[in-house]
Design brief:
Length: 192
């Protein structure tokens, strides 16, 4: 057997070289370590105490009152709506009732929000007549919303006549824009 020992040694080197050549450098490794019968206990590393910085909470987001949200929705709905009433009348037009149906739906979102319903007119005609007409229009809007199950205590009608014009009255278009209804946030049962 003595002659075969060098043969086996060369054969082993040949196999290792071939494996190394074809499989790469990391494929030839030493055998895994043998586990001891009694493992040596190594002490666990002591954890480092890291001082934590106080976590700053983000600044509180200011709460928007529900009535302000409702007012914004109503304003968006009323934007561009000019002819809600017949001329020189407090009678609601069908288009005006359709808009007020949307307002009633918005008002039902928060049964605690109270609003002033302001009526406005153009400046054609005497101011006392315009003020009475604007009050009648504001009252007609409140009455219509009450018929849509909005509590009357939440709505306060107020007529402003032509005292708060939003545009010039020199054209028919301007006068139509000044004949408007406006919702303002107000405490329940009081005028804002």
């Amino acid at each position: 057997m003595q002659g075969k020992d060098p043969f086996f040694a060369l054969l082993g080197l040949f196999i290792l070289g071939t494996v190394f050549l074809f499989c790469g450098e990391g494929s030839v490794t030493s055998p895994p370590p043998v586990a001891f019968e009694k493992p040596v206990e190594t002490p666990l590393p002591t954890p480092k105490i890291i001082e934590s910085r106080p976590v700053l909470a983000p600044p509180p987001v200011p709460l928007v009152p529900a009535s302000a949200v409702l007012k914004k929705k109503i304003d968006e709905l009323l934007m561009g709506t000019t002819m809600m009433f017949r001329i020189n009348s407090a009678t609601l037009l069908p288009e005006g009732k359709a808009v007020l149906n949307g307002v009633a739906t918005i008002l039902q979102e928060d049964p605690t929000a109270a609003f002033e319903v302001g009526g406005h007119t153009d400046n054609v005609g005497p101011e006392p007549t315009n003020r009475v007409l604007s009050e009648q229009r504001a009252k007609a809007v409140v009455d219509y919303l009450v018929s849509k199950e909005i509590v009357a205590d939440r709505l306060t009608p107020k007529g402003y006549g032509a005292s708060r014009l939003i545009t010039e009255n020199s054209t028919e278009e301007g006068r139509q824009q000044n004949r408007q209804i406006e919702f303002s946030i107000g405490p329940k049962g009081e005028q804002p």
